[in-house]
Amino acid sequence: MESDVSPPAYSQSRRRGKRRRRRAWLPRPPALRDFAKRHRLRFTEGNHVTLYGTGPEGLEAMLAAIESAVDHVHLETYILRPDATGRRFLRALTEQARAGVEVRVVVDALGSWTLDDRELTPLREAGGEVVWFNPVGFVLPRLGARRRDHRKILVVDGEVGFTGGLNIGDEYTRGPESGARQWRDAHVRIQGPAVRDLQAVFLESWFRADGPDLPWHTFLDESAMDCGDVRCAVVADGPIYRRRRMRDLVVAALDSATEAAAFESPYFAPGRRVLEALGAAAERGIRVRLLLAARSDHPILYRAARAILTKLVERGVEVREFTHSMLHSKLAVFDDSWAILGTTNLDRQSLEHSHEVNLILSGGDITKQLSAHLREHAELSRPVAMSDLQARPAWQRLCDWAASLLLWFV
Q: How do residues 117-129 score in pLDDT, each as one tens digit?
């Protein structure tokens, strides 16, 4: 049976007022409607979503939310670095814990391997709680080294939530003054009923990482009031689920697209099902666009992507590489009517092995914002033509092939 992260149905809010009862909204394309029913997704209306395209914007908004907390702060991140940015977050969390705010943090043990547990001592002494997700043992890892917590979630007081591609580190805050170009990403701030569902995903991770027991229902009995016009579904994914949700969602979205599908991903090495869906959509006349990273912090993944792009370009998929700086966004827009944004990369690690969280978004002007975000990045990118791929020297093709083969065995 498929795991279900959603706890029992929540009651109407006493502290924040009653919400109007509405019929559950489901996406119109039949393939997506079937996906939503099969995976028991809860769509909420009345959400307000703010998009951040760079690290400084998103991280400053997260810090401001933490500093305004009065009840609790729940933070889950893949990478928390012990650098200037990471220390700012740890100081803010420690100060809030010292002031009596409940602070809970989930950190992936592999993603945050540079963070010494001793650096968390001040936070713990102030009353905060920190747990490491899946520490990798010297002999055998407890759950498998590839089972990572790649989610990025911040929930403050059950009123505001954040998710997207931003980790916590200096690479997201560097700018022209440091001689480096800021990483580009896609991160969102959410207010409204969807925050409750983001909270549920955090709690799933907390207990999966053996976090101390807590009255979880108190965080889920109430839902924030409507405050916007965006429809949203929170899609939790991970190896605990019987079927991989994000892989199925991407395939269903491509199968149901009628005009266009645009993807942005820093790493590209999906399995055969996603590759076939991309090619099939392009062959039936859908404009399929891939915007990938030209500057990668994972050179093996970059080389592996080059090995599989030839067949996609042959089938009509448009491919561009972002050259301005490191591209770290994980998003997709379909038919200019709805979008996916979150933590999942289009590679097998994310689609098959990691715990992820994503949002399905529609309504308001959020799709227009994300389309503009994609267009801005496309202008800072170069096209990848068939002639470019065919012109690769033999040694480069061999390296690309070896990288793609390696990903199937590690």
A: 999 999 999 999 9
Domain that holds residue 350: 245-407
Write b or e for each residue in 389-404: b if 16 or more Cβ atoms lie within 10 A of its Cβ, otherwise e. Answer: beeeeeeebebbeebb
Q: Which of 330, 353, 355, 373 is catalytic?
A: 330
Q: Is 157 a catalytic residue?
A: yes
- Which candidate in 48, 74, 187, 328 is catalytic? 328
Q: Once rounded to an integer, what is the mean pLDDT over residues 211-215?
A: 92
pLDDT bucket at 142, cuts 50 / 70 / 90: low
Catalytic site includes residue 150: yes
What letter does residue 258 receive in the DSSP assignment?
Answer: S
Mean pLDDT of 304-314: 87
Who has greater pLDDT, 393 or 71? 71
Distance CA 150, CA 158 (A): 21
Number of folded domains that form the chain: 2
Tally of CB atoms within 10 A around 244:
20
Catalytic residue flag (residue 248) = no
pTM: 0.89
165 is a domain residue: yes
The set of residues, in sequence order, having a beta carbon less than 8 Å from that of 219 and lying 6+ positions away, is 72, 158, 199, 203
